[in-house]
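Fill in residues.
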């Protein structure tokens, strides 16, 4: 088995959002308690204080960003390489790498932990979709508009390989390396195939596979995050890891045809495929 990264991908972020939502929506933010401002971008406390004493109307997701929406605007959080968030009682003392807390009117706190500090906590104002970190993002893979026709139309002049194409956040967000490898195996497409050399039918199949693998991972509680704060899905995480078809399985036999799975490096990323099943 190859190394499974701890980096939170779209499924872990969506699982986090779903776990946080019932605790935070409808409550107001009492105060922010920020112990470390040096994240990927310095935390601008003055701006973020605008969510204090405001009701959280919703908690949404765009790509791998979690958006905390209030009447005065939106605060945006990214988990970076090693971040996680959890709900705690307000008197639980912070541990190492617990960089900030959002105190809520229900006496709970949302606590952000990030050993490597590549995450961020930024003010995104009243039109978060225009914020520079998310304004360029492509479609959400789980939304209706993301279909094979969309990929096919966009691919017409793209000479890049299909794996890089679907991992491009300007095309579609949240298809990380594991999911790209798995979706290409499931749809029988060779990762090195040129994006403009794939027909509409195959793109329909690929879009379907991307949706189903992300949905399955969300249902399982996310694939990659070992120290995930919401433990209800933990046993199932292990199950999902075992159910990966090609990722990290170089040297093993393809479950479908028995051919040995190969590993190559494509655009700098570990790429796993079956040369018989994927053309
Ligand atoms: Zn095979």
């Amino acid at each position: 088995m190859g190394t499974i990264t701890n980096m939170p991908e779209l499924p872990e972020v969506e699982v986090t959002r779903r776990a946080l939502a019932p605790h935070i929506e409808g409550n107001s933010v009492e105060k922010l308690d920020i112990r470390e401002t040096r994240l990927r971008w310095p935390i601008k406390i003055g701006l973020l204080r605008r969510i204090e004493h405001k009701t959280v109307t919703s908690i949404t997701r765009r790509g791998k960003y979690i958006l905390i929406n209030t009447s005065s605007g939106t605060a945006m959080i990214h988990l970076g390489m090693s971040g996680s968030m959890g709900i705690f009682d307000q008197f639980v003392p912070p541990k190492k790498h617990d960089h900030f807390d959002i105190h809520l009117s229900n006496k709970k706190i949302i606590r952000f932990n990030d050993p490597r500090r590549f995450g961020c906590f930024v003010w995104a104002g009243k039109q978060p979709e225009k914020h520079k970190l998310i304004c360029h993002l492509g479609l959400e893979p789980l939304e209706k508009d993301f279909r094979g026709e969309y990929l096919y139309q966009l691919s017409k002049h793209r000479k890049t390989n299909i794996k890089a194409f679907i991992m491009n956040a300007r095309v579609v967000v949240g298809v990380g390396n594991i999911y790209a490898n798995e979706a290409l195996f499931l749809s029988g497409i060779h990762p090195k195939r040129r994006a403009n050399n794939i027909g509409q039918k195959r793109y329909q199949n690929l879009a379907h596979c991307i949706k189903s693998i992300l949905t399955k991972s969300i249902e399982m509680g996310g694939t990659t995050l070992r120290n995930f704060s919401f433990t209800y899905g933990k046993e199932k995480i292990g199950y999902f890891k075992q159910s990966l078809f090609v990722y990290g399985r170089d040297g093993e036999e393809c479950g479908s045809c028995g051919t040995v799975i190969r590993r190559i490096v494509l655009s700098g990323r570990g790429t796993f495929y079956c040369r018989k099943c994927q053309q």
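The chain has seven helices and ten strands.
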